[in-house]
Amino acid sequence: MLRSVQGGTYSTGNGNRNDWYEVEVNGKRGYVAAYYVDKGSSAPPPPQSGFVNSNVGGGPLNLRSQASTNAGIITKLNQGTKLTILGSVTGGTYQPGNRNDWYQVEVNGQRGFVAAYYVNKGEPLQQLQPVNNDGQRIVDAINRVNPDQWYYRPRDITGDGRNETFCNWFVADVLEILGVPIRRHSQPMYPPVFNKERRNKPISAEDLYTFFNNGGGGQWQRVSPGDAVAKANTGKAVIASSYGHIAIVIPGGSASDVRVAQAGAVNGKNLSAKGVFGKEPLYFEYIG
């Protein structure tokens, strides 16, 4: 709702009224009779930082005037372009997968709409500076595995019509590059980062959380948020974990703002741990 206005008279079961609201819905502005709108008490979500992810491939992402591939193009955004996400809207379908999720965004003072599949929340990892050169091995491993690629993005792999997420797959592949073992099943998988050579599927995020909490086989130890950042800055493998989700701690955060790379409902290389977990997760360092 943008504002209240006085307009033409309309009838209700409680008499005639002339109060209207100017509103915006899915990027379209208009007027509705105020009697039929509950203002509620919830505030709109605050703007979030984001960037154009690698799903665009070699081409740019179109910033459009409406949430539709038929709408006019305001400008074109290259991979890595930073933007401000103002909100989520449902719009016209687009590929892949006949999706209809869009973001209203602002880029360099221009507002428009972009297909959500091609945008990640957070900051591009390459803009993060490790505290020392040892932390670069964590950055390099995350960039190599790349949570933005299709393999780790939410999709339906069971045929039940619901998207699965792959936080444990992403973490397992990053840890393998770092030379850190993780518990796995015998079920095969074929990660692109390893040229689709067979790897065994890691155990679930729920089982990993239980494993870490029970001592991690003597190879993992729980650390504080501050120690998690300090260890990542020196190139140590540190994971953030809760029951049902897991992520990799990246260099350059702080005790009050631990940063992680993850696959999940939102994929990204530089996200707030408390933001993606919904609270401060537990942190575990690999000690071998």
Strand content: 35-45%
Q: So, the CATH homologous superfamily of the largest domain? A: endopeptidase domain like (from Nostoc punctiforme)
Helix content: 10-25%
CATH architecture of the largest domain: Alpha-Beta Complex
The CATH class of the largest domain is Alpha Beta
Order of helices and strands: EEEEEEEEEEHHEEHEHEEEEHE
Radius of gyration: 22 Å
Instruction: Report the major sheet.
Output: 6 strands, antiparallel
The largest beta-sheet arranges its strands as: 13-18-14-15-16-17
Please tally the β strands and state the result.
18
Taking the alpha carbons of the first and last residues, their distance comes to: 56 Å
Give average pLDDT, whole number.
87
Structural class: alpha+beta
Tally of contiguous helical segments:
5
Low-confidence stretches: none
CATH topology of the largest domain: endopeptidase fold (from Nostoc punctiforme)
**Shape assignment:** elongated
As for the number of domains, it is: 3
Name the features.
alpha+beta; 18 strands; 3 domains; 288 residues; 5-stranded antiparallel beta sheet; SH3 type barrels; endopeptidase fold (from Nostoc punctiforme)
Describe the structure in your own words:
This protein folds into three domains: 3-36, no CATH class; 48-121, Roll (SH3 type barrels), CATH 2.30.30; 125-286, endopeptidase fold (from Nostoc punctiforme), CATH 3.90.1720. The protein has helices spanning 136-145, 167-177, 205-213, 225-233, 273-277; strands spanning 3-12, 15-25, 28-33, 48-52, 61-64, 73-77, 82-94, 99-107, 110-115, 119-121, 184-189, 199-202, 220-223, 238-242, 245-249, 259-262, 268-272, 282-286. Helix 1 packs across helix 2 (167-177). With 288 residues, it is α+β, with helices and mostly antiparallel strands. The model has no long low-confidence stretch (mean pLDDT 87). The strands form five sheets. It has a six-stranded antiparallel sheet. It contains five helices and 18 strands. The protein is elongated, with a radius of gyration of 22 Å.
